[in-house]
Amino acid sequence: MRLPTVAIRHATAALEPDGKTIRFRITLDADTDASGRVRIPALGIDTTVTIVRGQGECTAQFKGDAWSPDNPVCYDVIYEAGGDAFRDRVGFRTIATSGTDILLNGVKIWLKGVCVHEDDRALGKVSTEADVRRRFRHLKELGANFARLSHYPHHEHVARIADEEGILLWAEVPVYWAIAFDDADTLADAENQLSELITRDINRASIILWGVGNENADTDARLAFMSRLATRARSLDPTRLVSAACLINRETFTIEDRLAAHLDVIGINEYFGWYEPDFSSLDRLLANSDPDRPVIISETGADALAGHRSAGRVLFTEDWQAEFYRQQMRRITATPYIAGIAAWLLYDYRTERRQTGFQRGWNRKGLIAEDKETKKLAFSALAEQFAAFGAN
Do 259 and 350 fall within a single domain? Predict the structure, then answer.
């Protein structure tokens, strides 16, 4: 297909914080003046855009239905400029924080979710549309409204399908563990990946969180690196929240990370009851902490080999994995500043560093085995906990 002489490079539509105004932006691939047009036929919107030196924006009143997991309505948006036309399907919603709450369309929501990897026993690191739709079908069976796309940009059809299905998303870049935080080229790479991810998915209503890192030691270099990513995320997209999986202070046993000051939502990865033998340390952590913004348990889980059964705290059994989630949810849902959970994780996945007799090259923390069909006891246990916690 041959593009016109002046083409649309990028176009966005987002609901302003007032929940009543849509702001449209059009960027051309040439530094030129032009007249543009934006239409949403289903809403009766038809407005002109004055484009100066390749950039233009306009607003229109929003009188449609707000997008949400319960009502994932999307509208056809048609952009025209410079002899080019571009059509997208967009949902409109607001996402914000108030104290330690997360607000979707101005209403408090509790994120009931699970982490997901792009991995398949037969296809490897490939994500087909059928696999994504199965993934979201299992999320809905779980009673989840949220997924963390761990730990890298997932295929572009993931967010589009999430828009259709009504699943909220945390999307992130692969800034995890001990990367070279003091290296300028590494920072440039991370900023580029974050910029490309946001540019690609900025019109997807399902994405509410941009993740800028995972499990990094709180050093000066890391703070400078990741705070810059948080700033970049907000400059490219002020309509969403920024988060990262932070660490805890092991001396004071509190949620304490200097990066938190640069985030809208604090993520915490914790495995009390698995890597640490009981839940008393989790009780201590939750009681000692008093964050001023929402916290999401961005990872927690326990390994279980499908079919392996035993009573009590016997590791790698389905029984203990199920009890692990009952114990976790009892504590998490009773903590006012926690606004959600992303259980680690939906399916067992291949990883060579896991080599116990039960794992043999697989992370067995999936709620479903690697065949993506066999549900472990923890699946129904967590589903019961989600259902008991209410509609939100």
Answer: yes
Q: Is 232 helix (H, G, I), strand (E, B) or coil?
A: helix
Residues with Cβ within 8 Å of 85's Cβ and at least 6 positions away in sequence, in order, are: 8, 78, 79
Which residues of the chain are under the pLDDT cut of 70?
1, 390-392
pLDDT digits (tens, 9 = 90+) for 216-275: 999 999 999 999 999 999 999 999 999 999 989 989 999 999 999 999 999 999 999 999
Q: Is 107 helix (H, G, I), strand (E, B) or coil?
A: strand
The residue written with tokens 């690697």 in the block is: 370
- Torsion angle in degrees (nearest 10) through CA of 67, 68, 71, 75: 20
Whole-Å CA distances, 301 to 114, 211, 285, 322, 367: 10, 20, 17, 10, 9
Whose CA is closest to 145, among 110, 117, 176? Answer: 110
Identify the domain boundary among 56, 73, 92: 92
The total number of structural domains that make up the chain? 2
Nearest CA to 273 out of 329, 352, 353 is that of 329
Q: If you search the block for the tokens 């974050």, which residue do you land on?
A: 194
User: And the tokens for 323?
Assistant: 């009890």
| Ordered alpha helix ranges (H), 143-279 | 156-165, 184-201, 220-236
Rounded Cα–Cα distance for residues 127 and 107 (Å) = 33
Q: Measured between alpha carbons, how far is 363 from 352 in angstroms, rounded to an integer?
A: 9
pLDDT given for residue 371 in this prediction = 97
CA distance 303 to 194: 31
Distance CA 111, CA 91 (A): 19
Peptide bond into 151 cis (omega under 30): yes
User: Residues 223, 229, 234, 235: is their CA dihedral positive or negative?
Assistant: positive
Together in a domain, 82 and 101: no
What is the residue range of 44's domain? Answer: 8-92
pLDDT at 87: 96
